[in-house]
Amino acid sequence: MNVLITGGAGYVGTELLAKLALNKEISKITIYDNLSKGHRSVFLGKKSPFLSKIEFVHGEILDSRLLKKKLIDTDVLIHLAAMATTPFANTDPHFFEQVNHWGTAEVVYAAEESGVSKFIHLSSTAVYGTGADLADESTLPLPQTYYGISKLRGETHVNRLMEKKNSIILRGGNIYGFSKSMRFDAVINKFMFDAHFTNRIQIFGNGKQTRAFIHIEHLVNTIEQCVLKEVPTGTYNLVDKNLQILEILDVLKELYPDLEFIYANQHMKLRELNVSLESKLFESVTRFTSTSLSDELQGFKSQFAF
Fold first, then answer.
1. Contact partners, residue 45, CB within 8 Å, separation at least 6
2. Fewer Cβ in 10 A, N or C end of the chain?
3. Do residues 158 and 257 touch, judged by C-beta distance below 8 A?
4. Percent of residues in the chain assigned helix, strand, coil, to nearest 5
5. pLDDT surpassing 80 at residue 87
6. What's the pLDDT at 217?
7. Where are the strands (E) in the chain, listed by range?
8. How many C-beta neighbours within 10 Å does residue 176 have?
9. How confident is the model at residue 296 (pLDDT cuts 50, 70, 90)?
10. What's the distance, Cα to Cα, between the start and end of the chain in Å?
11. Fold adopted by 2-173+213-239+275-287
């Protein structure tokens, strides 16, 4: 089996590559990435015993000619490449639209004209927007950020591909956890960095806002199963926990007892989203065993060099 991963040098892609490289059913893995995030960690470390099965392609997802060329003899296409959300996600909508919408469109077009038999697309629970009710896979998407809008528009192209090929959309929660190619703009990861090195965390709003989260290890393990197992075409949620920001802070205080907190705009009530932990996906893949946030962040803390 040959696999191509767009965004394969990124936060999730680096961990997914390490996981898939160990699998004997996979003969070749192509990392397709423009390195715009500055990630280079995937290229460093001890030499992998699986070097012969890994290829790197420096490419843009908008470069359909190069992408089509690299999809020759590819069985599974995993689309991770995206402009990820940050606390300032609404400041520059152009890049979200260009990468997450039209970039996904180009990847779908390339897959459509190739011999790819399975397409796995990592979307986001941000497509649900906000609301007090628990969102599930039957909930009508109503995104309220440029990031969420661009991810939903990207999904529309994958929906069209579903009529022709086995296509799987995974709406993941906010991703957190250690990776060689870290994203420190993700909320839990940023909290961990600030707590460890500055002993101070800044909180926007009153801290009572809730978000849906997924640990990177659970995400990567599930994507691997989607590659190897027969999963029906469809759109699935992938969430591990719904956490209030104050709940995250309680765990951080256990790890860093002298931690200081600074509130910004404490009077504001910020967006919140709760997503059901149940998913039809677990009818086809093995449900991951949820681990405590305390244990996860303790493991994260152990990865810091000093």
1. 180
2. C
3. no
4. 35, 20, 40
5. no
6. 97
7. 2-6, 28-33, 54-58, 76-79, 118-124, 166-172, 174-176, 200-204, 210-215, 234-238, 241-244, 260-264
8. 27
9. very high
10. 41
11. Rossmann fold (3.40.50)
